[in-house]
Amino acid sequence: MRLYLYPRVRPIVKRVFLQRVLPQRVLHTNNKECFVENLEGEDKGISIINLNRPSTKNAFSKKLLTEFEDAVEKLRNGTESRVVLLRSLVDRAFCSGADLK
């Protein structure tokens, strides 16, 4: 699989995803399974929706789905975001689908 990235986006993706640079505040989120992180500085205007439910490899539960919908709505109503990236904070998994439990 080849991933094409526009030249302007490539350094951002490399910094945010490939190097897995996660500030400490990302790791302490008051038990939120999905939350928005707005980047600052040269990356201003870029928002990241983070999925963080390691026990089920980000399977979508009712809580995660509600928090995801809230995050999308927050970004839709805000005017500062030009780009939205979706990121998993769970190692070796993005999303395992719906939580059937």
TrEMBL record:
Which top-level group of life is the source organism from?
A: Eukaryota
Q: What Gene Ontology terms describe where this protein resides (cellular component)? A: mitochondrion
Q: Which GO terms describe its biological process?
A: fatty acid beta-oxidation
Instruction: Please report which protein family the annotation says this sequence is part of.
Output: Belongs to the enoyl-CoA hydratase/isomerase family.
Q: What is this protein called?
A: 18655_t:CDS:1
Upper classification of the source organism reads:
Eukaryota, Fungi, Fungi incertae sedis, Mucoromycota, Glomeromycotina
